[in-house]
Write a structure and sequence with these properties.
Structural class: alpha+beta
CATH architecture: Alpha-Beta Complex
Strand content: 25-35%
Number of domains: 1
Strand order of the largest sheet: 4-3-15-8-9-12
Order of helices and strands: EEEHEEEEEEEHHEEHEEHEEEE
Largest sheet: 6 strands, mixed
CATH topology: Fumarylacetoacetate hydrolase, domain 2
Radius of gyration: 17 Å
Shape: globular
Length: 228
């Protein structure tokens, strides 16, 4: 097949211990999935149904590294998250079957232009330009579930310039990974290559050019990003 314009570069993530890479299809993100983060954002942490937003797949910054400070914002925030990689697609997935659809896991950052997001919230507009901008999804290499299992607890934290900013536990998620996959698959058909960013603990805050971010998820790995 020929194309009338150059084809876009494939968005991929490396996989620990393998030469083959994971192709990224779509990026889904769960909003306010930790109670303390919901509170700090001024929301009710009661267990309401999960909601989702998306990022373009080429927002991936594979294995961290350098992230340019984005335009049109004066309030760039970090959000440290567990990332789920879908290996087997499906729709209307039952919760007990959900983990069978997971290929693996990574540590990721949902970078956010908080000022643009705030304006969108107040005006009842979509969050796209606050969340789905270039380089807004730094992500570590994947660890295959076949190698590490399916973590349901463990520390998740983020440091900025060696100062601890976020610290939580995966067990504090309002919606577990199986619940999230099941719910999302009733809204859209999931497919191999989909990523799900599963929400962030409390402690989000701003970064500026020159800041160094170090994130960690127990059993999954680490990610380091420098804002340039």
């Amino acid at each position: 097949m020929s194309y009338v314009i150059p084809t876009p570069a494939e968005a991929v993530l490396p996989v620990v211990g393998q030469a083959a890479v994971f192709p990224v299809r779509r990026i889904y993100c769960v909003g306010r999935n930790y109670a303390e983060h919901a509170r700090e954002m001024g929301a009710d942490p009661d267990r309401e149904p999960p909601f989702f937003f998306t990022k373009p797949r080429d927002a991936i910054v594979a294995e961290g590294g350098e992230m340019p400070y984005p335009p049109a914002t004066e309030n760039l925030h970090y959000e440290m998250e567990l990332v789920v990689a879908i290996g087997t697609g499906g729709k209307n997935i039952a919760e007990p079957d959900a983990l069978g659809h997971v290929y693996g896991y990574a540590a990721g950052l949902d970078m956010t232009r908080r000022d643009l997001q705030g304006v969108a919230k107040k005006m009842g507009r979509p969050w796209d330009m606050g969340k789905g901008f270039d380089h807004s999804a730094p992500c570590s290499a994947l660890r295959a579930a076949a190698d590490i299992g399916h973590p349901h607890s463990g520390a998740i934290w983020l440091k900025v310039n060696n100062s601890l900013k976020q610290a939580g536990d995966l067990s504090q998620q309002i919606w577990s990974v199986p619940e999230t996959i099941s719910f999302l698959s009733n809204l859209v058909e999931l497919a191999p290559g989909d990523l799900i960013f599963t929400g962030t603990p409390a402690g989000v805050g701003p970064v500026v050019a020159g800041d160094r971010l170090e994130g960690h998820v127990d059993g999954i790995g680490d990610i380091e990003v420098t804002i340039i």
